[in-house]
TrEMBL record:
One of its GO terms (molecular function) is S-adenosylmethionine-dependent methyltransferase activity. It comes from the Bacteria. The keyword Cell inner membrane does not apply. Gene3D superfamilies: Vaccinia Virus protein VP39. This is Methyltransferase. Keywords: Methyltransferase, S-adenosyl-L-methionine, Transferase. The keyword Methyltransferase applies. Transmembrane segments: none annotated. One of its GO terms (biological process) is methylation. The lineage of its organism: Bacteria, Pseudomonadati, Bacteroidota, Bacteroidia, Bacteroidales. It holds the Pfam family Methyltransf_3.
Length: 214
């Protein structure tokens, strides 16, 4: 879902960096082969993720929810030499597609794919603190993910959470399903957390940027 109108969206896309050809191909393939293809980050959000990485200059990035790999590639694209992305995807049926596009884009050496439940995998790969964590997985579990990763993020590090306006349901009174309730509880939790600074951007389906104070 885009919270901007179509004309504004078109104008924005015409005046930002072009979508790399391999990402455009991945976007098309995702829409042809996958259910819930709207979960693919897409051109605008992808360029924003890359820009955020450029600005923060992280060494270690963690992503929860790879889907077909579009956002992981954008995160990796913004890294300086020596940086790495660890991305976790629970659906093992997507593994071949994900790894194929990582290699095709030329970022296979920067991205490490972990297949399984994030709650089990993250504790095993979290040696040094994370500089950025991008949360874009099961909306029901956003609070659980937040509690898990916050202690693992360095002081001054960032958590970025996708879909935090969730089809406009945060304000239209239709918060009844588990995913909507999960996002709503997450927003309340983050909003009340004095240990972080936070802002919600009305980009696509809502993007929350969280900065860890301590």
């Amino acid at each position: 879902m885009l919270l901007t109108d179509r004309d504004t969206e078109r104008y924005i896309l015409e005046h930002i960096d072009a979508e790399p050809a391999v990402l455009a191909e991945l976007n098309r393939t995702t829409h042809v082969r996958c259910l819930y293809s709207n979960m693919c980050s897409g051109h605008l959000q992808g360029r924003i993720l890359k820009m955020l990485v450029r600005m923060i200059s992280p060494r270690r990035v963690l992503e929860l929810g790879t889907f077909t790999g579009y956002s992981a590639l954008c995160l990796a694209e913004g890294l300086e030499n020596g940086g790495e992305v660890h991305t976790v995807e629970i659906n093992d049926e997507l593994t071949d597609m994900i790894e194929g596009y990582f290699e095709k884009a030329g970022y296979g050496d920067r991205i490490h794919l972990h297949v399984g439940d994030a709650s089990e995998i993250v504790p095993l790969i979290s040696g040094e603190p994370w500089d950025i964590v991008f949360i874009d997985a099961n909306k029901r579990s956003y609070c659980e993910y937040y509690r898990m990763v916050l202690p693992l993020v360095r002081k001054g590090g960032f958590i970025i959470a996708d879909n935090t306006l969730w089809y406009g349901k945060m304000t239209d009174g239709s918060a009844h399903d588990a995913q909507t309730l999960g996002i709503m509880e997450f927003n309340k939790m983050v909003g009340a957390d004095a240990s972080v600074e936070k802002v919600i951007l009305p980009l696509r389906d809502g993007l929350t940027i969280i900065w860890k104070r301590d």
